[in-house]
Write a structure and sequence with these properties.
Elements: E1 3-7, E2 10-13, E3 18-25, E4 32-39, E5 46-51, E6 57-59, E7 67-72, E8 77-82, E9 91-99, E10 113-114, E11 118-123
């Protein structure tokens, strides 16, 4: 059974950094495209980055240059390094997986596996 579990959320001041982790289990790590999403209270879920199987990435403009996705295949862990955080980054962050070579963070309905989320709060 595919399982995803996020960790690393917390509270930080504007300009600070956090590193989120997503521990995965139950499936061949090298067959799934991964992504991070976030959802702020009262707002729609927003995709922020995709990590394709060839290692290439796509970032939404609002986080480009500030966030970095990476993976440690040996540890089955997906990470999201978030720097220069802003109050508008406040949200619950989710990792997600879908079978296939490539995936789109703009199409959250295509992702079949989700973690439970971790809260990130950025104060001004």
């Amino acid at each position: 059974q595919v399982q995803l579990q996020e960790s690393g959320g917390g509270s930080v001041q504007s300009g600070g950094s956090l590193r989120l982790s997503c521990t995965t289990s139950g499936y061949p790590y090298n067959r799934y495209c991964m992504a991070w999403f976030r959802q702020a209270p009262g707002k729609a879920r927003e995709g922020i980055v995709s990590l394709h199987l060839d290692g290439s990435t796509d970032y939404t403009d609002s986080v480009k240059g500030r966030f970095t996705i990476s993976q440690d295949s040996a540890k089955n862990t997906l990470s999201l390094q978030m720097n220069s955080l802003k109050p508008e980054d406040t949200a619950t962050y989710y990792c997600a997986a879908v079978s296939g070579l490539r995936c789109s963070y703009s199409d959250f309905e295509s992702f079949g596996f989700w973690g439970q989320g971790t809260q990130v709060t950025v104060s001004s």
